[in-house]
Amino acid sequence: MSQTMKDKILQAAEDRVRGAGFAEMSFRDLAKDVGIKSASVHYHFPTKPDLGEALVQRYAEQFEVHLEKIDQDDLQKALDGFVALYSQALVLNESICLCAVMGAEAIGLPENVNQRTKAFFAMNKTWLEHLFTRHGIEDAGDKAGLVVAALEGGMIVASASNDRTLFDRVARTAMASITI
Amino acid sequence: MSQTMKDKILQAAEDRVRGAGFAEMSFRDLAKDVGIKSASVHYHFPTKPDLGEALVQRYAEQFEVHLEKIDQDDLQKALDGFVALYSQALVLNESICLCAVMGAEAIGLPENVNQRTKAFFAMNKTWLEHLFTRHGIEDAGDKAGLVVAALEGGMIVASASNDRTLFDRVARTAMASITI
DNA sequence: TCATATCTACCTATCAGTAGGTAGACAACC
DNA sequence: GGTTGTCTACCTACTGATAGGTAGATATGA
Prior knowledge:
The structure is a homodimer. By secondary structure, chain A is mainly alpha-helical. In chain A, 77% of the residues lie in helices and 0% in strands. Chain A contains nine helices and no strands. In chain A, helix 1 (5-20) crosses helix 4 and helix 5 runs antiparallel to helix 9. At the A-B interface, helix 1, helix 6, helix 7, helix 8 and helix 9 of A face helix 1, helix 6, helix 7, helix 8 and helix 9 of B. Chain A binds a DNA duplex through helix 3.
């Protein structure tokens, strides 16, 4: 299962954006990462917005696969799996959720990129909402929105503070406020 | 009360960072904004990290003043005031909280800037924690952390989705999970 | 089957524009 | 006369993007 050059570029781009932001990522950096010239990166992704859109789309698709895997009837196990997905996205001094970065930069980003980011958040919220509804939890939609916001925000606070326990506490407290 | 040039630069920088990110803000942009040359901006802030640090410090100081103003014994009124502070920081297609941006970009930012961002989050959490403790709310620290994360995250989700009601719902749901 | 044509995936070279930063001149003010 | 604040003029490094070209795979048609 060999990776195509397009995939290699997207992977390099994801690493860089999740580490330093979309504005900080350049075609030349990506070219060096994958071993081609920057002009060749433009062959695969004509413009930076094109690359950004493909990037978020791929990230969301991969995330969706994971969501399907952890989808199960046991509420506690499903929630644990959900938190674990976010927890894995947070590596101190290395990366946070791609869409936390894209969301924070949203105002200065191309509209096509923002649409994909918006869709990512909506997908996460919907997944949780369905889970909550199945278990008869009231205000499922609002509570789903709270959990997504808390986890994304918790990731940012933890990353800036260089303290992973801050994320863990936020996640635990958010879950407690739902399942009680 | 005329503004000093230093303050004018910081204000322009804040507007730009909150709109498009720290990486996207340039000395030339700021120079145009305040009507001087970029070399003169370097006179006030020798390097970009210097500017970034002063920026977050000023933002935190101003926020602290606001926190002192809304500090009162009525729990609901204090919480409403807190949420209002965050709500005011969110202007669709224009700005979000400075520290949400700085936090999201943290991995690629200078350490002195991150220290200030970390202090901002800590200050917010501490303010809430004291409020909760005064009202005998259990797990005051964890709940304070949840609220800060939820509001910062809610701002990001709402900004990327270009939908202010997403923030309002997150804020309301977070508050409900505390005061019940 | 061989020649022609097209496509893929790169390359080199270059562009105009912008980045952060510096040196040194100059004027205003205490 | 020194300090403060701003200027002009410049530097090197890098940005996204484009032009034009090429080797090799693949498809088309006589």
